[in-house]
Amino acid sequence: MNDDHNIQRCGMDVKQIPMVFDNNVYAQFARVEYPVQLQLILEPDPKNPTRNVVVDFADA
To answer: What is the pLDDT of residue 15?
Structure first.
């Protein structure tokens, strides 16, 4: 909120997170009806263990 406008934010932040290359995970994402909140299951990226990749997800 500022002096010129009365703007209130609500919703979710959009972020990009790498996903493991797995056709089953891609097929699951294709069936999701957006917008939706998901709980992401993360594991270390095999190519870069300092980063995480999405390996699965569940309804939040």
So the answer is: 76
